[in-house]
Amino acid sequence: MRRTGLVFTALLTAALTFAPALADAKAGLSSSMGSRGTNTYSAPRPTATAPSTVAPMQRSATPTPSTAPTPGYAAPVRPRSPFMSGLLGGMLGAGIGGLLFGGGFFHGISGIGGFIGFLFQIFLIVMIARWLFGRFFRPAMAGGPEVVTRMPVQGALPGGSGPPPVAIGPADYQQFEQNLQAVQAAWSAQDINQLRAVATPEMVGYFSEQLSELASRGVRNMVTNVHLEQGDLSEAWAEPGREYATVAMRFSMVDVTVDAAGRVVEGNPNQRTQSTEVWTFLRAPGGHWLLSAIQQTQ
After folding, report:
1. Residue 232 in 3-state DSSP?
2. Residue 291 lies in a domain
3. 287 belongs to a structural domain
4. Does 281 lie in the same domain as 133?
5. Domain range spanning residue 122?
6. 3-state secondary structure of 181
7. Counted domains in the chain
8. Phi, then psi, of 57 in degrees rounded to 5
9. How open is the CA angle 209-23-187, to the nearest 5 degrees?
10. Residue 45 and residue 42: Cα distance in Å, rounded?
11. What is the reported pTM?
12. Are the beta carbons of 57 and 67 closer than 8 angstroms?
């Protein structure tokens, strides 16, 4: 019984150790990461290959909308009137004084003296009414409370209809498939230099972290015989100095994870598996496409 308990404990420990790495095989470990320019936090358009929902970015160097300025507009500036601020402050102070000494809100002002104090109260009421009317009602009648400074949206067309589209041809699709195979090959070989040739520095950084994590667990993921079964374009657009293309791809492969001795600890070397992911590529106009993001389908 003691020997059986030790064996069970060892197996359970191994399962807990390898489970996070083995459940997330292939390049990217089945996570959603990278950048899609101004569309980073917008869902890619569904396609025949990936008609379901695409997972949002889990990691990205692009600031989230909550921390980034809203594109297209500057914050409105509300002008203040020093005279009205001082007048309201004086009235409030006098009213509070009247309340503290047992009178009404206007007691502190009416105590100045008879009829003059009464006129002064009417003057204050009229000024407050004019200020409230000019502050809240007149702008609404004019069609808006403030004048907002409009700033150009990065990558948008002059008419504000969004980033201009990019034409994608057969040569581009061929390069997308080649990049898919090159990324998986460099991942399997743990070749960071080769990854730099086919992916952005941001993606190379994520891949490097993941490979280091697998190495620390004493395992290595190997993806071979990658074949693109089906792929179609989700969207392609241009931004200043860059062009983007988001492509849905369903591909098959032989996906196994081995330990330091080369023994298979997960997967079947004689069986192909399939995966569907949405990859985004970027390039300088006329340059080569580089992988800039991977997103999982849900």
Report:
1. strand
2. yes
3. yes
4. no
5. 82-142
6. helix
7. 2
8. -65, 130
9. 40
10. 9
11. 0.64
12. no
